[in-house]
C-alpha cells in the first residue's frame, strides 16, 4: 500500500486551505535547504581563504550537509502535520527551527570573524 493511501485512511480530509498551507510550509523548508546547499557551494567556490586553513571547507561542508538534512526532514514534517490535520490534533512543534536558526547564526558569525581576521592579516 502506498503512503498516500495510508495517509488518506487516517481521520478525515481537512479543509483544503490547511493542506495547502502545510504544502507551502514544506516548500519553504525545501527552499531553505536549497539556499543552504547554494551557500555551501558558494562559500567553497568564491570565498577568499580564511584565517584558519581548511576551515572554509569545513564550513562549506556544514552548510551543504545542513541542506541535505533539512531536505530529508521536510517531508517528514509535512507528513506529521498532515496527519495531525486529518486527525484534528494540534500541529507538531517545529523541532528543526531552533537548530536551523542557531546553526545558521553560528556559521555566519564564524565566517564573519574569519574573514575579518584574514583581512587584518593580509
UniProtKB/TrEMBL annotation:
<feature type="domain" description="DUF202">
    <location>
        <begin position="17"/>
        <end position="83"/>
    </location>
</feature>
<feature type="transmembrane region" description="Helical">
    <location>
        <begin position="99"/>
        <end position="120"/>
    </location>
</feature>
<feature type="transmembrane region" description="Helical">
    <location>
        <begin position="26"/>
        <end position="46"/>
    </location>
</feature>
<dbReference type="InterPro" id="IPR003807">
    <property type="entry name" value="DUF202"/>
</dbReference>
<keyword id="KW-1003">Cell membrane</keyword>
<keyword id="KW-1133">Transmembrane helix</keyword>
<dbReference type="Pfam" id="PF02656">
    <property type="entry name" value="DUF202"/>
</dbReference>
<keyword id="KW-0472">Membrane</keyword>
<dbReference type="GO" id="GO:0005886">
    <property type="term" value="C:plasma membrane"/>
</dbReference>
<keyword id="KW-0812">Transmembrane</keyword>
<protein>
    <submittedName>
        <fullName>Putative membrane protein</fullName>
    </submittedName>
</protein>
<dbReference type="InterPro" id="IPR052053">
    <property type="entry name" value="IM_YidH-like"/>
</dbReference>
<feature type="transmembrane region" description="Helical">
    <location>
        <begin position="58"/>
        <end position="79"/>
    </location>
</feature>
Amino acid at each position: 500500500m502506498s503512503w498516500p493511501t495510508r495517509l488518506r485512511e487516517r481521520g478525515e480530509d481537512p479543509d483544503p486551505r490547511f493542506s495547502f498551507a502545510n504544502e507551502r510550509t514544506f516548500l519553504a523548508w525545501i527552499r531553505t535547504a536549497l539556499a543552504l546547499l547554494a551557500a555551501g557551494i558558494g562559500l567553497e567556490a568564491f570565498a577568499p581563504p580564511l584565517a584558519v586553513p581548511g576551515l572554509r571547507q569545513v564550513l562549506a561542508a556544514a552548510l551543504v550537509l545542513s541542506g541535505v538534512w533539512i531536505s530529508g526532514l521536510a517531508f517528514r514534517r509535512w507528513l506529521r502535520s498532515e496527519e495531525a490535520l486529518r486527525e484534528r490534533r494540534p500541529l507538531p512543534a517545529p523541532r528543526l527551527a531552533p537548530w536551523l536558526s542557531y546553526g545558521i547564526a553560528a556559521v555566519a558569525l564564524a565566517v564573519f570573524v574569519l574573514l575579518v581576521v584574514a583581512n587584518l592579516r593580509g
